[in-house]
Write a structure and sequence with these properties.
alpha/beta; Rossmann fold; four-stranded parallel β-sheet; 4 helices; globular
Length: 133
C-alpha cells in the first residue's frame, strides 16, 4: 500500500480535507494500492468544526479524527509527502516534500481552501492513474 501523507500545521483543516477527498477519489478510480494519511507539525486537539461540517455536508465524517504529529518514520516511508504550510526540513532532512503552500488556511477562506484542495487532489489522482496505465 502506497501512502500519500498530507501535512498542515495543526492537522485540523487542510490535510484532513485532502486526505478525505484523496481516499474518496482513489476508491472511485479503483486505485486500491493508494491510501491517504494526514498529520501536522503542531497538532491541535480536534478537527476544526467548520471543516468537519463542510466535509459532512459532502458525505465525509471526520468528526472522530484526532490530529497527530508527523513522525520521521511516516515521512520517510510515505510514497509522497504533500505539505500545506509545514516546514519538515528539521524533522526529516532529505525527505522530498511537495509544497501546496498557496492553499489558504480554512479559518481565513474555507471555501477557497476546499476548492483548491479538491482541484489539486484531483490532479494528483489523475497523475497516479496515468502511471498505472
Amino acid at each position: 500500500m502506497k501512502t500519500i501523507l498530507f501535512l498542515c500545521p495543526q492537522n485540523n483543516g487542510r490535510s484532513v480535507i485532502a486526505a478525505a477527498y484523496f481516499d474518496h477519489m482513489v476508491a472511485e478510480r479503483g486505485l486500491t494500492d493508494y491510501k491517504a494519511a494526514s498529520a501536522g507539525t503542531e497538532p491541535s486537539a480536534s478537527v476544526a468544526p467548520k471543516v468537519a461540517e463542510l466535509l459532512e455536508a459532502h458525505g465525509f465524517d471526520v468528526w472522530d479524527h484526532l490530529p497527530w504529529h508527523a513522525t520521521l518514520d511516516e515521512l520517510q516511508t510515505a510514497y509522497r509527502v504533500i505539505s500545506m504550510g509545514c516546514d519538515v526540513s528539521e524533522l526529516a532532512p532529505g525527505v522530498y516534500v511537495k509544497e501546496w503552500n498557496d492553499v489558504p488556511a480554512p479559518g481565513k477562506d474555507l471555501l477557497g481552501a476546499w476548492k483548491m484542495i479538491r482541484h489539486r487532489v484531483g490532479k494528483l489522482v489523475d497523475e497516479l492513474a496515468s502511471q498505472r496505465d
